[in-house]
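Note to self: the last two entries modelled the partners one at a time, which told us nothing about the interface. This time every component goes in together.
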Amino acid sequence: MIDLQIIQDNLPAFLDGARVTILLLLASAVAGLSLSLPLAVARVSANPFLSRPVFLFTYVLRGTPLLVQLFMVYFGLAQFDMVRDSSLWPLLREPWFCAWIAFTLNTAAYTTEMLAGALRATPAGEVEAARSLGLTGFDIYTRILIPGAVRRALPQYGNELVMLMHATSIASAVTLVEITRVARDVHANSLLAVEAFGTAALFYLALTLCITGLFRLLERRLLRHLARPAGAS
Amino acid sequence: MPMLIEYLPILLDGLLTTLSVSLVSLAIASLFGLAGALAKLSTGRGLQAVAGAYTTLIRSIPDLVLMLALFYGGQALVNDIGLRLGWDYIDIDPFLAGSLTLGFIYGAYLTETFRGAFMAIPKGQAEAGLAYGMSGVQVLWHITLPQMIRHAIPGFANNWLVMVKASALVSIIGLDDMVHRASLATAATAQPFTFYAAVAVLYLVVTTVSILALGQLEKRVSLGVRKAVL
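The predicted structure of the combined assembly is written out below.
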């Protein structure tokens, strides 16, 4: 019924695809997270000149499909002579670079709102306590607000990483040979949909389980103070 | 810009496809979600296991992979059956396939939304209904379902927004939606940025209108619900 031979023959290609998926995920997650932390601080700022532009950024990126964003970067930018003449053009011509840019901006937008929500959820007493101990703006952020917010946002961020990992399948639309592209090529050559996409699905399932498992460990460590004490039910 | 004005009717026509795919998918997803939630909350072990596998599996695999698998897999299945029964070659309509697939995928997400909403209704209400001699179906229809809707709206709204955006993927399986129209216009005019940006703006309009409308809806179904004053 299921042609195991074709799966076995294409396993090396799938493994290479998985490597591309993981690299794309890691590169976008690291860059997106680095962008989102300062953006989240700006987003919750009382100064509208800081918070409004960030709101606009997250609203536009969260309100449009990632596929369209990716096409705007990969196909769209070539429309402008300025881009084609710039020194960045050799990079902007590359599908992996465009995918990285699109995925980074997209995950940065979602993560910014997530962190901003976690920052807003800081109990007022924590900030008051910090002030009464003589801490000032920057220290309050780096020592009180951000560590607390990162902990609170951790479970949600695990979900965001799974979503981002799934979103990397869209890179198959711009010729990047990640897991989904491998499956589409196998299907195009063999017309065996179940074998091709089933194998891809199993790869994604395994990666999803890895991410959720990793975050369960992280949560157990970083959110230990919130865990129910042993023996209590 | 003049190119954009010339092609705008074609893009707007694609917007209609995008909206109809999304709406049909939402209806299908609601049915799957309701069935899934009822199965998860039922006492039948088998039903619970099937619904559990459905939500876990669907939510662990990218939409695009599921869509390709169901579209091409479904096509192969139909061909297989057709061959045995001696039918002519049947081409699956991408609109139907796209809506069914999206509906099936987002049904898994709505299952969780509806399950949470059902659980937010105090147990005593269903018990009171049963004590008055109502059947399980009557309790569902007259007591739990109408109240569940109010609790489900925030999650439902969220799912709708995600689904509208996911509908862009149907262009990959050959449906003539907004994104597909934009790529055709791009090929003819060599202005990719203009057309994809226009599509992005149209999506933004849809999401903005949806957020406003669903906010109103939430207000309406929450009439008479007292809020705690903090």
